[in-house]
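Sequence, please.
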């Protein structure tokens, strides 16, 4: 016999739903019922698992990377600078590029096991360590874009391609060393800013970077 755990009604007041969990629908709207004297409640929802090597920034992390991006733009203005990778002087475009770039760094840090690192709001003096928690450089693009390697990039550093924006699921697609990306096969000149553009299919797996860092 079904019996409502909220109002105690039973009999004709409870309509069975043929649920495998012994549930019915009561006139009071409750969804947890007793059946044959045993309390039965719906199963707890299962946590949503992130795809491999993916991360979604929290609200506080989004706020942080936006603050860092605003600071970077302000310092660039003070130096009379123009964004290096794109040449656009439109502030909104520069802000989006910077904020998503810092979000990509956070993503790389998180998928590689650093749950606390955040980019510094105060400029950090020269360091020989990569930007993303000292683990890897991060290059953030829209999905299905290639990894950009600049001629000035350091050959011994790992560079990780990240797809997405700070408001969406961000995925680390793979990585390679700067020297590997500086292959003439990847060089393109018929673009506004000639650089090396490496397809994601040519990158090393994120598993290999994680294993390398664990040594």
């Amino acid at each position: 016999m079904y019996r409502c755990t909220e109002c105690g009604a039973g009999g004709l007041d409870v309509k069975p739903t043929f649920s495998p969990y012994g549930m019915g629908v009561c006139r009071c709207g409750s969804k947890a019922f007793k059946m044959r004297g045993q309390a039965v409640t719906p199963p707890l929802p299962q946590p949503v698992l992130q795809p491999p090597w993916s991360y979604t920034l929290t609200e506080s992390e989004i706020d942080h990377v936006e603050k860092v991006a605003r600071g970077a733009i302000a310092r660039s203005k003070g130096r009379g600078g123009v964004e290096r990778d794109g040449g656009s002087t439109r502030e909104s475009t520069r802000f989006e590029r910077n904020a998503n770039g810092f979000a990509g760094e956070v993503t790389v840090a998180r998928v590689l096991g650093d749950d606390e690192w955040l980019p510094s709001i105060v400029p950090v003096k020269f360091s020989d360590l990569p930007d993303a928690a000292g683990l890897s450089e991060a290059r953030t693009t829209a999905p299905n874009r290639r990894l950009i390697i600049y001629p000035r990039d350091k050959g011994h550093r790992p560079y990780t391609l990240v797809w997405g924006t700070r408001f969406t699921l961000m995925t680390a697609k793979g990585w390679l060393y700067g020297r590997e990306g500086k292959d003439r096969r990847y060089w393109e000149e018929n673009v506004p800013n000639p650089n090396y553009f490496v397809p994601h299919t040519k990158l090393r797996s994120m598993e290999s970077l994680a294993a390398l860092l664990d040594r």
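The radius of gyration is 26 Å.
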